[in-house]
């Protein structure tokens, strides 16, 4: 564990911390000394529609505790962020127990199960299942709105609060069309949310940003897409050469912790940020000591159809 914990005394809420980026961000906030409330729909007693029962918010809280040592703490609170009354109860609990909220992370998703992301020929919007499409909108957009509406009144009580919208892609990379239709909307909207809420929060001395990982080695990406583990993930490069630029969830966790500990974080207000870009700014690395810059790689190598070569990109 690091000897310095710059977030000691801070309270964070990571909404959507069951697995992947959300889990890693919660752990790294705890490692930096924060008390972290972790929420999601999958618990040891209930499995969400995502259908991954072995990844629970209780386990995330335990990982936060293990990383935090004596300072930070992980607190698991089962919450469906599409239910305002549940989110209000969550925020009231945070206020009652901590009296403050310093960091709000909207990492809510779960829409992949309603989209055929692996298809090479993505369907047109009007041929897609409307109910599934609208469910994606609720999971990826409405849940963020509900959470911010309920939690920001607590965040703005103290200057220096930070709202982080988490998505897939940056403002630059999302200028094109990222099929299918409902995915594009769900992943582009948080970028605008961060900009808009940054405008509203700055008069309270608070900051809003949008943050994205690169090609994330989430649990589902590893075991479902490539049938590998974090330990042997490089074996997947043979079937997907550009996977060489991929990054562990810890990388985005370290990006968030660096942002949250920056006394001048307001300089980023309203902006769309990436793990790779922030690594250049703050000097952190991924777990293997490298610093992958996936979005620059995708723009300069993968997008133009060049052979996979991560030289100079990690």
List the keywords.
globular; SDR_fam; 39% helix; seven-stranded parallel β-sheet; alpha/beta; NAD(P)-bd_dom_sf; SDR family oxidoreductase; 314 residues
Protein model, in words:
This protein has helices spanning 20-31, 57-68, 84-98, 130-155, 181-201, 219-226, 249-261, 275-282, 294-302; strands at residues 11-15, 35-40, 73-78, 103-106, 162-166, 207-212, 272-274. It is of the alpha/beta class and 314 residues long. The protein has a single domain (11-301), classed as Rossmann fold (3-Layer(aba) Sandwich). A seven-stranded parallel beta sheet has the order 3-2-1-4-5-6-7, sandwiched between helices. The two termini are 25 Å apart. This is SDR family oxidoreductase. It comes from Streptomyces scabichelini.
User: What is the number of E strands?
Assistant: 7
- CATH architecture descriptor: 3-Layer(aba) Sandwich
CATH superfamily: NAD(P)-binding Rossmann-like Domain
User: What name does CATH use for the topology?
Assistant: Rossmann fold
**Helix/strand structural class:** alpha/beta
Cα-atom radius of gyration: 18 Å
State the major sheet. Answer: 7 strands, parallel
Indicate the CATH class: Alpha Beta
What distance separates the N and C termini?
25 Å
Strand content: 5-15%
Number of helices: 9
Instruction: Note the overall shape.
Output: globular
Mean pLDDT over all positions? 95
State the low-pLDDT regions, or none: none
Order of helices and strands, N to C?
EHEHEHEHEHEHHEHH
Q: How many separate domains?
A: 1
Largest sheet: spatial strand order: 3-2-1-4-5-6-7
Tell me roughly what share of residues is in helical segments: 25-40%
